[in-house]
Amino acid sequence: MQQLNFPAYNFRFKNSENKTAIFDEIRKKFIILTPEEWVRQHVVQYLMKEKNYPKSLINVEKLLKVNGLVKRYDVVVFNNDGSILILVECKAPEIKISQTTFDQIARYNMTMKAEYLMVTNGHNHYFCQMDFENERYDFLRELPGY
Q: Is the pTM of this model over 0.85?
C-alpha cells in the first residue's frame, strides 16, 4: 500500500487466500485491505493517537438511512452523550476529492447532525465545522482534539 499523508502507524496484517487483511481495532477483526480501508485505518489511528479520542467513542462502517436509502458511513466519533461529534468520509487515494464528495457527506450529515466533518483520500484532508443555523460548513485547519 502506498504512503499516505498521515504519521506512520503500526498495523497488524495477515494473508489468507492471496488476500491481505488489516486488523481493525474498532471492529476487533481483520478486514480485507482495500485502498479505501487503508485510508480508513489511518484515520482511526489519527483520531486515537493524534487527537486523543478514546477508542470507545469511535465507530466504523455502520449503516444509516438517508432519504429512505441505506448508506454506510466510514468513521464516526461520538460525544459522551451519544450524539455525533465527527463524521468522516474516506475515499481511496486515487479518488480526487470533489464537490460531489462534500455533497455526499453533507447528505449523510442531514441525518447524523455531526458538529465536524472530515473528508480525506489519505493525501488531502479537509475539515469542516457545521453551522446549522446558516445551513453551511466552515473549513478548519484541523479537527479539535478530545
A: yes
Contact 58, 43 (CB under 8 A): no
Cell readout for 37 is 480501508
Q: What is the grid cell recorded at 100?
A: 460531489
| Chain segment 63-113, per-residue pLDDT in tens | 777 677 777 889 999 999 999 999 999 999 999 999 998 888 888 888 889
Rounded Cα distance, 38 and 11, in Å: 10
CB contact at 8 A, 26 and 62: no
Q: What is the DSSP string of 20-88?
A: EEEEETTTTEEEE--HHHHHHHHHHHIIIIIS---GGGEEEEEEEEETTEEEEEEEEEE-TTS-EEEEE
